[in-house]
């Protein structure tokens, strides 16, 4: 019997009723169709993982070498993961559910922040090392700048890396948190992806101005002026970056 075509935004109550009736295959088919139609790669990926687990369950059931209790536990785990996925979806008729307004999921937003910060700081360290090699910094000055910039970055990366490892384990178990699939508001995305590149641009500009000889005191480069401006930059942008990192990643640990 062929299934009816899934609507662009499936009704949560219908999907939940299918779960209650143990119709996991039909529920997954509607979820996958919705994810493809609405361009939601995170939902599509999680639905695909769950479909793979369901196929493994059917294969184990046919083989007959797995105890029924174990099969029931696995099926119940898939059902719970499906329920989490459904609860993270928009309601039918919600304007935010349209493909044009689906937005970026929280999970993808986190990974982009992690990647942007990691690449930006690594490029900054490489830029400082380059100036040590070319004579813009003495070795002691270069290491002092790196030491000034690393503590906050190390703290942020520690929080983000713990989150990435935790979520990787959850994806392996195909049990995504509903909060991971909710979209991030456009205002937060725009502010974050404007301020973070601006931060690195200002950082490299300060370093470039010092190594080019713009700051001098008594005929010599004023290294103290550079470290003062770097401290101001780290403090100013650190407040915002810290709110984003700890708000998103530390909050994710609770989910």
Describe this structure in words.
The structure is a single chain. Strand 3 (216-217) and strand 4 (220-221) form a beta hairpin. It contains eight helices and four strands. It has helices at residues 12-20, 24-37, 41-63, 68-87, 106-134, 139-172, 186-211, 223-254; strands at 104-105, 183-184, 216-217, 220-221. The longest helix is centred in the middle third of the chain and has 34 residues, at 139-172. The strands form two sheets. The protein has a two-stranded antiparallel sheet. A two-stranded antiparallel ribbon has the order 3-4. The protein has two domains: 12-101, no CATH class; 104-254, no CATH class. The protein has 255 residues and is mainly α.
Q: Which sequence of strands runs across the widest sheet? A: 1-2
Tell me the structural class.
Answer: mainly alpha
Helix percentage range: over 70%
What shape does the CA trace take? elongated
What is the strand tally? 4
Low-confidence stretches: 1-7, 93-101, 171-178
Domain count, please report it: 2
What is the rounded distance between the termini?
A: 39 Å
Main sheet summary: 2 strands, antiparallel
Radius of gyration: 25 Å
Oligomer: single chain
Can you count the helices?
A: 8
Name its key features.
elongated, disordered N terminus, mainly alpha, two-stranded antiparallel ribbon, two-stranded antiparallel sheet, 255 residues
The gist of it:
With 255 residues, the protein is mainly α. The protein contains eight helices and four strands, in the order ααααβααβαββα.
């Amino acid at each position: 019997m062929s299934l009816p075509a899934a609507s662009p935004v499936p009704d949560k109550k219908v999907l939940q009723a299918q779960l209650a009736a143990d119709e996991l295959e039909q529920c997954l088919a509607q979820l996958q169709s919705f994810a493809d139609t609405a361009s939601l790669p995170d939902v599509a990926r999680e639905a695909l993982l769950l479909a793979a687990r369901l196929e493994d369950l059917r294969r184990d059931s046919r083989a007959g070498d797995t105890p029924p209790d174990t099969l029931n536990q696995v099926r119940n785990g898939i059902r719970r993961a499906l329920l989490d996925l459904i609860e993270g979806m928009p309601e039918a008729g919600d304007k935010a559910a349209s493909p044009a307004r689906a937005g970026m999921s929280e999970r993808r937003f986190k990974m982009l922040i992690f990647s942007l910060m990691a690449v930006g700081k690594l490029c900054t360290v490489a830029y400082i090392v380059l100036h040590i090699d070319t004579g813009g910094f003495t070795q002691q000055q270069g290491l002092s700048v790196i030491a000034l910039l690393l503590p906050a970055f190390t703290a942020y990366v520690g929080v983000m890396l713990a989150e990435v490892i935790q979520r990787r384990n959850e994806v392996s178990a195909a049990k995504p948190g509903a909060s991971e699939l909710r979209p991030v508001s456009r205002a937060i995305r725009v502010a974050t992806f404007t301020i973070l590149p601006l931060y690195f641009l200002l950082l490299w500009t300060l370093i470039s101005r010092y190594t080019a000889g713009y700051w001098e005191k008594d005929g010599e480069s004023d290294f103290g002026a550079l470290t003062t401006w770097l401290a101001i930059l780290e403090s100013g942008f650190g407040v915002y970056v810290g709110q984003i990192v700890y708000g998103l990643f530390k909050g994710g640990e609770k989910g």
